[in-house]
Amino acid sequence: MEAGIATFSIIFLAELGDKTQLLVMALAAKYAWRQVLLGMTLGIFVVHALAVGVGNFLGGLLAPDVMALIASLVFLAFGLVTLRSDEAEDEEEQAAPARFGPVLTVAASFFLGEMGDKTQFAALTLAAQWQAWLPVLLGAVLAMLLADSLGLVAGSCLKRFFAPRRMRLLSGLLFLAFGAAGLVQLVVVGL
C-alpha cells in the first residue's frame, strides 16, 4: 500500500505540466473526449507496464536519448501534418478519423511521448526500490490518468470556445513546441 501511495504522489507531481498532459489538450481538441480518455488510458498503461515489468531490458536496448529523439521527431511530424490540414480535410477527418482511428492514435502518441520520460523512469526506479510491481504500476497509472485528465478537460473546453481552424492551429503549434523542446533538451543535455 505504501509503495502505491508513494508512486502515485511522485508520478502525479512529476506529470503536472509535462508534455503529455499538454499533448492531451491538443488531442482533446481534435477527437471526442471518450476516445482520448480510452486512448490515453491504453497508452499510459502500456508504457508504465513496460517500465515496471521490463524497464531494465528496454533500457539496455534503446538509450533514453534515442527514444527522446524519436518522440521529438514524431511530435514535429504531427505538428506539420496538423498545420497543413485545411478545412475540407477537417470535415473528412470527422467523418473518417485518423488512419488507425482516434483511440490508437492517442495511445501511440502517449506511448511515444512517455517512452524515456521522467515518469517512466520514476516508475522503473520505484518498482526496483519497493519490489512491489503491482502497487507501483497501479499508483503510476492512476496518477497519470488523474493528471492527464486535467488536460483532457481543458482541451475539451477549449474546443467549445474556438473555431476548428483555430484549434487546429493551436494543436499544430503545441505539437511543434513539444518536438522542438525535445530536440533542444537533447542538444543541451548532450553538451
Structure description:
The structure is a single chain. This protein has helices at residues 2-15, 19-30, 33-61, 64-84, 87-95, 101-114, 118-130, 133-161, 164-190. The chain has one domain (2-190). It starts with a helix and ends with a helix. It is built from 9 helices and no strands. It is mostly helical. The model is unreliable at 86-97 (pLDDT under 50).
| Helix/strand order | HHHHHHHHH
Q: Number of folding domains? A: 1
Tell me the number of strands: 0
Q: How much is the radius of gyration in Å? A: 17 Å
The separation of the N and C termini measures: 41 Å
- Helical region count? 9
Top keywords for this entry?
mainly alpha, 191 residues, 88% helix
Give a quick rundown of the structure.
The chain is mainly α. It has 9 helices and no strands.
Write the layout of secondary structure elements.
Layout: H1 2-15, H2 19-30, H3 33-61, H4 64-84, H5 87-95, H6 101-114, H7 118-130, H8 133-161, H9 164-190
